Amino acid sequence: MKDIQNLDDIKQMVDTFYDKVKVDPLIGPIFNGVIKDRWPEHLQKMYGFWETVLLDVHSYSGSPFPPHAKMPIEQIHFERWILLFINTVDSLFVGEKAEEAKWRAEKMAEMFHHKIEYFKAAGHKPLI
């Protein structure tokens, strides 16, 4: 196995991961319900996001949190998301960028979860 090195590797990681997400009994219905028939568009965004984050190629612009702000997700959903992501990366890649991808995914899930819980507890709606 090799490390994540280029856009083709990013696409392989993203496609493999979301193939698992789509059929997962816990988070699949949530993602499929929100994304519906816009999977190609979502995957393109994710290619750009991860290419920007891991390879310092600025192909993503935007804010990743707002689309998740109103989703019906709890800690258990984030745990499953992370499990699937880490298992995907570990099955495909090894190296510094692979470790960075897993670390960044964990931090992003943690931040999203905290923000969603904050809005719920405070009775506020996120500004999106």
Automatic annotation (TrEMBL):
It comes from the Bacteria. The keyword Iron applies. It holds the Pfam family Bac_globin. Keywords: Heme, Iron, Metal-binding, Transport. This is Group III truncated hemoglobin. It comes from Flavobacterium luminosum.
